[in-house]
Amino acid sequence: MAIKYDATIATEIINQFEAAPEMLVQLLHAFVQRYGYICEEAIRQIAAELNLSRADVHGVVSFYHDFRTTPPGEHIVKICQAESCQAMGSRDLTAHAEKKLGVDLPGTTSDGKVSLEPVYCLGNCACSPAVMIDQKVYGRVSNAKLDDLLAQYGDGQ
Amino acid sequence: MIQAVTVYVPRETAAVSLGAHDVAGKLSALDNVNVVRNGSRGMSWLEPLVEVVVDGRRIAYGPVAVEDIDGLLAAGFLEGGEHDLKVGPVEDIPYFRNQERWTFRRCGLIDPLSVDDYRAHGGFAGLAKALAEGPAHVREQVNMSGLRGRGGAGFPTGIKWQTVADAKGEQKYIACNADEGDSGTFSDRILMESDPLTLIEGMIIAGFAVGADKGYIYLRSEYPLTHRVLGKALTAARESGWLGENIQGTEFSFDIDVHLGAGSYVCGEETAMLESLEGKAGLIRYKPPLPAIEGLFGKPTVVNNVVTLGSVPDIIALGGDAYANLGVGRSKGTLAFQLAGNIKRGGLVEKAFGLTLRELIEDFGGGTASGRDIRAVQIGGPLGAYFAEQHLDTPLDYEAFAKVGGMIGHGGVVVFDDTVDMAEQARFAMEFCAIESCGKCTPCRIGSVRGVEVIDRILANEDRENNLNLLNELCDTMIDGSLCAMGGMTPFPVRSAVKYFPEDFKR
Ligand SMILES: Cc1cc2nc3c(=O)[nH]c(=O)nc-3n(C[C@H](O)[C@H](O)[C@H](O)COP(=O)(O)O)c2cc1C
Ligand code: SF4
Ligand code: FES
């Protein structure tokens, strides 16, 4: 995920959205997809090229949970914290993950491998508890299944 | 050469979350098998549900893990052989057979990305009829159907469309709300992944009915698979001449873009969604003006939920009265209930309004997954009330639920067994409101934070009676002083928890 910020490529991304202010949310998604997060430089450049104030862009970035402003771990593990998953033990699953990874939700392991994050419903509520790792959804995730998944994603200490 | 056997393996989030891709991969490698990736029948508890075509019938096996395939092959499942996982012909499964499928009738049946398959099962018949009969006919049929918004508020769709049709202005929009943020709901997702052309057709018909040439689907970012399927379905629709310029050679043009949400629950509220579609933070707008008059970019806009729009094609094809003949009272037609949480047979149940909660949870759902007693049921998402055993015989229609202080909302039903701590659930309702509040009004933004603190004090047994009173007053303040249902309805789950489960607040 550690791709270095590059103003030329950033301009290319912005131009894909025709530098249109109404595309700001979509454009920020593209930045997160490329760089993993929205850095200060990105905010400055987006503001300049979209003719918005930096405060405007900041306001949008900070409003949405998806737009993080710090680099994520190599893998992002999101455990659903909403009601249906609560009914199937997501609180225990979260505690297990926190213990296993040695981080509190939300947080990133000290080796930078895994970011553990909350999510509020993945639409997989008939197969709760649900977990999303990077862009993949998993259902009926027991503690043991989570351990297996973490091992698969290269964090199986 | 022997004829290849057709085997259906869903490409749908629940099925994929339980290994459907691996199953499809392994089956595709066999040279006598032709794998079709369908959507889901909605029987999530059986996913991945694999269907084998034997003598023209689809025989189901499930839930199939990749490790089961060797055994299934040995048992001759490609000829419909017996096996522990065999559930038999799909249409004979009681859960499926006892539904009234309208909006979801093609889900799982067809290849979601094939326009030919879609048309072979009645797809685009509604749009063809609309184009032939004209916009006024379409509005009349939607009105006659009694269809009400399935996103939560239950507003009559026909009235909304008429308002937009009557509004002045050259540019109008259709904005489909696919934010589906409520816990316990996934019907929008199942429709978009299993039969996306139905939504696309519904949006085109809506555009035709009100005079709009542009539609947006506001899709939550938590649905990456849905996003890919929708993108492909839009391309297929365009390539076949059903979407874009001069649809089917007529004067009418309409196109659709997909925009992603960004992890905000409140952006499911229609005015916040419009702000977000305009690239801004999802702050709720004051109403009036209604979006139907001044919506997206200030233009008249139809905002409808996925299931609302997806119900329209057959209303036009079969007639508004055919839809209105289903249901009870002012709750016409069908609703796609979604069984979730601690439930044995979780999934989607499309039924005419009027069955009871007990029939839904016990007959369809089979009770809890844990086998323990049901203690609480939350209906209508995180802003919906919690109900107890004594409410299970309430019929599921908008009015009957309003009478007992609840709402059906988007049809999500989340079941909890007797291990649930309802004080913790009440606390979560407040916490969720604090996390997701758009921040525009104080009772919601600050009240929810205070709510968490007060519940913590109640649980710590600090001055319990006074704090329970304080919680009650706080709920009143939130109900009276909030601009939208986020702050205005968070008190519903909180109060119902205190009212029906008082013992959990006294430990
Ligand atoms: C906090 C909040 C969240 C909402 N979330 C959704 C949602 O995710 N999807 C949806 O269709 N409607 C949602 N609604 C309802 C919409 O505001 C609106 O009523 C609906 O999209 C209109 O479409 P319909 O008439 O077809 O239901 C939400 C409302 C509120 C107050
Ligand atoms: S009630 Fe809450 S979410 Fe709704 S407008 Fe007020 S602050 Fe925003
Ligand atoms: S509540 Fe967890 S997936 Fe819906």
Give a written overview of the molecule.
The complex is a heterodimer of chains A (157) and B (507). With 157 residues, chain A is α+β, with helices and mostly antiparallel strands. Chain A has two domains: 7-63, no CATH class; 75-152, Glutaredoxin (3-Layer(aba) Sandwich). Chain A is built from seven helices and five strands, in the order H-H-H-H-E-H-H-E-E-E-E-H. Chain A has helices at residues 7-16, 24-35, 40-50, 54-63, 83-86, 90-101, 143-152, and strands at residues 75-80, 107-108, 114-119, 131-133, 136-138. In chain A, strands 2-3-1-4-5 form a five-stranded mixed β-sheet, covered by helices on one side. In chain A, strand 4 and strand 5 form a beta hairpin. By secondary structure, chain B is of the alpha/beta class. Chain B folds into four domains: 5-97, 3-Layer(aba) Sandwich (Glutaredoxin); 115-324, Rossmann fold, CATH 3.40.50.11540; 327-417, Ubiquitin-like (UB roll) (Roll); 422-505, de novo design (two linked rop proteins), CATH 1.20.1440. Chain B has a five-stranded mixed β-sheet. In chain B, strands 13-12-16-14-15 form a five-stranded mixed β-sheet. A four-stranded parallel β-sheet of chain B has the order 8-7-6-9, sandwiched between helices. At the A-B interface, helix 2, helix 4, helix 5 and strand 5 of A face helix 1, strand 12, strand 16 and helix 17 of B.
**Shape designation of chain B:** globular
Shape of chain A: elongated
Largest interface: A-B, 41 and 62 residues
Q: What is the CATH third-level topology name of the largest domain in chain A?
A: Glutaredoxin
What's the CATH class of the largest domain in chain A, please? Alpha Beta
Approximately how much beta-strand content do the residues of chain A carry?
A: 5-15%
Q: Give the CATH H-level superfamily of the largest domain in chain B.
A: NADH-ubiquinone oxidoreductase 51kDa subunit
Q: Reading side by side through the largest sheet of chain A, how are the strands ordered? A: 2-3-1-4-5
- Helical stretch tally of chain B: 21
Specify the CATH homologous superfamily of the largest domain in chain A. Glutaredoxin
Helix content of chain B: 40-55%
Topology as H/E string of chain A? HHHHEHHEEEEH
Q: What is the makeup of the main sheet of chain B? A: 5 strands, mixed
Task: Find the structural class of chain B using helix and strand composition.
Answer: alpha/beta
- How much is the average pLDDT of chain B? 97
Multimeric state of these chains? Answer: heterodimer
